[in-house]
Fold this protein.
Amino acid sequence: MPGRLSGSTAVVTGASGGLGAHFARILAREGAAVAVTARRVAMVEALAAEIREAGGRALALPLDVADADAVGPALDRVIAELGGLDILINNAGVGGEGLALDVPIEEFDRAFAVNVRGTFVCAREAAKRMIASGTEGRIVNIASIASHTVLPGLSAYCGSKAAVAMLTKSLAREWARKGIAVNALAPGYIETDINATWWPTEGGQRQLKLFPRRRLMDADDLDDAFLLLAGPSAKRITGSLITVDDGQSLPGGG
Ligand SMILES: NC(=O)c1ccc[n+]([C@@H]2O[C@H](COP(=O)([O-])OP(=O)(O)OC[C@H]3O[C@@H](n4cnc5c(N)ncnc54)[C@H](OP(=O)(O)O)[C@@H]3O)[C@@H](O)[C@H]2O)c1
């Protein structure tokens, strides 16, 4: 499949559904070989089969990003089976819902284990391999408007996504002369499994009416910014967080 990313190999974490599956399809459409990873193996296998049927190259792998010891071996399999590692999409994420006074501490820990520690470990293991191969690496961390905006009832999630934003800058600085661009994409709300039960509720409907454009976004609203960060155009972009949110994080409701 010819495209902007022909000859590149990408890994997407949390690709069993939602935005991760969408990002994997875009990467494949642009010609990258794509390793799709998640805990739900049947779903990434189905996605890899779909990409191959469309003429792309894809590999499905089980990967729990909270299992730090599993990340390096998974990336080694990608390199062995797809021939390299140029792009990492750190997409795996969990919601960490609950008011601060009530949220179970296990839920808080899970948000940080997956969203922050998982992002860090995957970035570090990918960077080691990108540096060893001398590729112009691209790491795209999927942050959120929660990286810079208070979202109601989501303090654990907001804290974790703010950490993702700062990790992005710190890693970009450390690896600036090692040929790796590290950036973050901060989407606004898009309906996926992470939030689907919220929107039909009274609170969800109230929140929707406070967005300046009174609507959720679609996954493909992210495509141009995503490809900017994942591809060759990020040559001079590192340590940046690009917000694509349809104005949802603008202050002032009503
Ligand atoms: N939807 C939005 O409005 C929105 C907005 C801004 C940012 N985001 C971010 O976008 C990313 C994707 O979210 P989504 O909306 O697509 O939600 P989703 O449909 O719930 O998908 C979350 C993905 O993360 C994976 N995941 C969860 N825990 C994991 C773990 N321990 N190891 C590996 N994978 C894990 C899940 O796969 P398995 O369960 O199969 O492992 C799933 O594929 C998240 O980082 C989220 O914070 C979403």
